[in-house]
Prior knowledge:
Elements: E1 15-16, E2 35-36, E3 60-61, E4 66-71, E5 79-82, E6 85-86, E7 97-104, H1 108-111, E8 114-116, E9 121-124, E10 135-143, E11 147-149, E12 152-154, E13 157-167, E14 175-176, E15 181-186, E16 194-197, E17 200-201, E18 211-215, E19 222-224, E20 230-233, E21 246-255, E22 266-276, E23 284-287, E24 301-307, E25 321-324, E26 333-339, E27 346-349, E28 352-354, E29 356-363, E30 376-384, E31 393-403, E32 416-422, E33 430-432, E34 449-453, E35 461-463, E36 470-472, E37 485-493, E38 499-509, E39 517-519, E40 523-527, E41 533-535, E42 537-539, E43 551-555, E44 564-566, E45 572-575, E46 590-599, E47 606-616, E48 624-625, E49 630-635, E50 642-649, H2 655-658, E51 661-664, E52 673-681, E53 684-691, E54 706-715, E55 722-733, E56 741-742, E57 746-752, E58 760-763, E59 766-767, E60 775-786, E61 789-790, E62 799-801, E63 806-809, E64 821-830, E65 843-850, E66 858-859, E67 866-868, E68 878-885, E69 895-904, E70 907-911, E71 915-922, E72 925-932, E73 942-952, E74 959-968, E75 975-979, H3 983-988, H4 990-1001, E76 1004-1012, ...
Parallel strand pairs: 4-13, 15-22, 24-31, 32-38, 40-47, 49-55, 57-65, 67-74
Antiparallel strand pairs: 1-2, 3-6, 5-9, 7-10, 8-9, 10-13, 11-12, 14-17, 16-20, 18-21, 19-20, 21-22, 23-25, 25-29, 26-28, 26-30, 27-29, 30-31, 33-36, 34-37, 35-36, 37-38, 39-42, 41-45, 43-46, 44-45, 46-47, 48-50, 50-53, 51-54, 52-53, 54-55, 56-59, 58-63, 60-61, 60-64, 62-63, 64-65, 66-68, 68-72, ...
Protein name: Cadherin related family member 2
Subcellular location: Cell membrane
Transmembrane segments: 1080-1104
Amino acid sequence: MGWGTGGGSGLCGATRDPPGVMLAGSRAPLDTASLPLPCPRQVSKKLTVIVEDRNDNAPVFKGLPYETSIPENMMAGSIIYTVSATDADTGNSAKVSYSILEVIPDNAKNFWLFYILPNGSMVLNGSLDYATNTFYQLKILAKDGGGLLHGVMVVQNSTTYLSITVLDLPNLNPRFLNEPYSGSVPENCPLGVTVLTVTAMDRDTGVNDEIFYSITNASVPFAINTTTGIITVSGWLDREQLPSEEVLLEVQAREKNLDIHGMVAQASTLVTILVVDVNDNKPEFYQCSLPSCNFTESQSNFTGSIIEHSSSKVPVSNLSIVAHDPDKGINSTFELYLQGGSASAFTVSPTRIVGTGEVQILVQNPSAVDYEISHVMVVQLIANDTGNPANCCSVATVTIDLIDTNDHFPEFPQSIYSLNVMENSPEGTVIAPNITAYDPDSGAYGQITYQLLPETIHETFTVNATSGAVLVATGASLDRETRSIYYANIQAKDGGGMVSTALLEISVLDENDNAPIVTGSYFISVEEGQNVSTQIKAIDNDEAGTPNSKLGFRILPGLFSNNFTINETTGQMHNTEPLDREALDDKDGQLVVTVEVYDHGVPPLSTLVNVTITVGDINDNTPVFLEQSYEFSIFESSADSFVGSVVATDADKTEINFRISFRLQSGSGSSNFLIRSYKLGPGNYSGQLSLDPDTTMDYDTLQQKSFSLVVLAENTATDSIRDASVPVVVHILDVNDEPPSIVPASQNVTVSENGTQQGLVYTVGAADPDTNHSLVIEKLQVTCLKDSTSAGDVCWDWFVLLPNGSVLVNSSEIDFELCDTVKLTLRAEDLYTEKGDRYSKNGTLTINIKDINDNAPVFLPVSGTFVVVPEISPVDLQVATVRATDVDSGLGGTITFSIFKVEVSGNNRTLENLFKVVTTVEQNNYIGSIQVASNLDSTLKGQYQVTVMAQDGAAPQHTAQTVLNIFTVDQSYRIRLQFVTSVEEVQSNLEEIKATLTLATKAAVYVVGIYSAEDSRAARAQVKSVMEAYFVYSDGTALDVSDLIRMIQSDPQLLAALVKLGLAVIGPGEVTEPSKETQMIGIIAGLAAFLVLFILIMTLVLVFTTRSYKRKLNSMKALKAATTLSPAVAQQGAGIPGTNQYNAEGANPMLNLPMDLSHDLGFHEDTSSLASVNSLDENKVDSPKDNNLKTKVPGGESRVPSARPLCCGTGAAGALVSPSRHCPGSSGEGWGCRRPCLCPCPQPLTTLPSCSWANHIPRTPLRTRYWWPP
């Protein structure tokens, strides 16, 4: 409040005389002392303001951006980079700490690959591999030590990224691309011809070292370019001189520089080169007989003999000539012919040979073979290789000695005999029963004996010397494929030695005695997973065009026969499923499929050919350990560092793919061991685990008695590392010389009360550092505690301890409320102790009894009385409190209060939402604050009976209830106190006024309001402000005006104090009544509402009247149209129930809308199929079936209704019109206006000039039915 500065009673130090206080019931004013006025004072002082720092700055990184590059072999523990951030704050808020939030690429291994020191130095925590990751990005968090900001503890932070590039180092061997390699080159090709190119690459892609190539084979006719890998011919190639037509090269690729271990980085591969045959050999002649020829030395001179005048086709005797060409296939085909002066007398057989064949010189012109002309005839035998013009021919000189004969020859009836014999016929087979000659000589000269010439034919055929029968000779072997026709002279010799001959042409008939011959060799190389396709080629030397030479193909059953299929006609073979190198036992990855090539002769003959397929290996298998786990034991301080061996295999078949290296995975204790890899065999490697020489194992000081290691077996043949792991446990053995111990010394377990948990509840852990021990657990003491104080021996039999440390529940009477903690004092004994103390130090097992919700909440007694003054009780005002406890713990002891119901005394009505309860906790008690939830009825007298429910928080939930009586103080106890001071002065002195009144009455003062006296009708001239209040005791009673006046007057000192505070008059509270002005305003508002309602009603009447007039106007138009149109011309359409059809214009008289006659109106509820409610229910109009609605009329004819006027009678609606009356305006045609009709018209017909249905439809409800008269 302020003070004035003018004169009069407002001067500083002056006194003022307040008016007297008029108490209710008394007219005499009270004497009061003069009150001094206060004086204003001024003072000044210099203040020093200290600005405290707040944590409003985040750390700021310096030197951004952060980027670095490190080699992939950087050692773990090396510092990679150092980041730095500063914080502008002071104190703890300026202390910056660092951490790594994220590592990209994001995986668990990468996250632990780095760590950061408090000074911001980034440290490598593992090993790097360029092949796995070439780049890392670390998200780094810098945060300060935290501090206050706006009254809240805040930690500021900033983030940035560190980019790390991994530099590749040469640590991997090169690798050949597109293996396997194979090529071909023709023999005799020029030196330097390119065969193929091999390519290898450095798997250290970041280094990409230069590769050099070399061939490691010795003495091969091929060379390789050291830099490009191009393989060329370096020596003369002669297929016939090579051991095999396939040359296998081993090519090595070597990197230019040594790897990081100082070793040469290299790899090898195999290259198969096929030397293709060319026609570079001419045929040669050899003096031998098949099949015993070795073709070592060729001959150019041969000698034979023949009898003069021998018949044509007779071979020269004593000749053994074999022609041979060492080329292959078609290159070995050559022709034979004769040259020289005697060539016309002879011919050669055969004239064409493939590879190797026997050669005969046959007589062609017998007359030229004349001993008297020449004793010796010489011919040149030419072998011509037509496919090799440059070196085509070989020439052999054949000298033929002629044998002289007598002059008279025996004569044969035929000069030539054509005979047939099956090949392979047994000896003695008769070819011709008798071939005889006639000799005119007589005597001994006429006695003819027969023999076959030449002598060589005797090995094959023989003749009976007397009968001339030709037979197969003893020991002869007839083979059509070797020789299909034989020519021989059958000689008839008389006694004088004169002979004659006849030619025997013996054709050897084919028998299926030759198996098919497979041409070529079949060696195929593919990578596993690829397809194989090849064609088997074969020939059969049996007679062409016969079943004996017709070939078929099939695969014989075998290990791999089901993996392939072959076309039985063409010999095309391919695999039926992908090939798996690991399924092959052969070390070279070869599988052999046997194909049978058979002919169709009887019996069929066949030849087997092996198709050898080399399946190249790819790295598609991961190493596998032979055991699922390994366990080794070593004695402490053992002199032998060897621990044990692990063995792993890799199913791949090549060394580059099955090579395995072992390493120990980083982990606890792994640094104490080393592992080395040893090759046991192909794909079989051993990892020799040993102690690190720098590590000593002292069993007594070791923290770990066994080490759990993880050994990794890795195969790095491909870009993606294939590895396997196996757990290895290494036990350190010891002598039993240490005492056991309870581990841990203090152990805890929780058991539920009331027998809800039975059987084994815990196993006490005991340990002995010795490896060979037998421990038993003993119970020494049982201690029962409740809230950390002794509970006696209530729990001594609740649990039992077994020697193995098992703790069992031994009682169903475990009660948390009696004892919440059971402590067992234990010790362990080692039965195998050899020396030293066999007992452990005492240990403790603390069994915490777990409380279950088995107790309901309990309300504490309420000592006070609760009172509420509705008029001044705002929402959230606390009017009462309850207290409750629950001896359970946890959620079972947590109590939540709620209002169950609220009733008013003397009234059975239950009230809702009047009160609410707020639950708080104070020590072990829960307090429910009953608060006002909505406005209370200030006129209500009596008390509220509030039922409060307490519910615990665990299942099964328990509840309890209590009833509170809250007394109400109604408006009759409101007291009005008038003050001579202003409202502002009363408000400023309110606490003092209330304290003085409470001191005078011993009652609580509830102030309703303070307002100006001008707002009150009872204001007096001296009164400036009014305060209304209630005076209520804790037992629910209140003071009225007389009681308050009496109490104040009884204490003059307190009365003087109240008068000093401005109190003037005390009276009853004012009940507000409406003023005349308020009543007048209400009346005016009511009249205005009535006027608005009246205007609304009149507007609706006007609208409906307008609509009715429009309907009547349309009806008149319809009537006029109906009287001018005949029914036949009238527009037809479906009727609307409740109306009189349509008018002639197609308008609906009810809706005043033009209608589409083809449209279904859908007035289903108004169709005339529904019965009427009046007495003429039998008169109905059937529901329209189509657009031509027809109505039955008397006489049986059907008429189509058209628009027409509705007939009206004189009676009530629906009455029958007198027969003398007819429809007005009827023309006597069409419709039955000659008949009486029904009408709901309310007026007699005589009162209307014309009773049109349109005049009355508006008065008829929409659902009124109309019927045509029957």
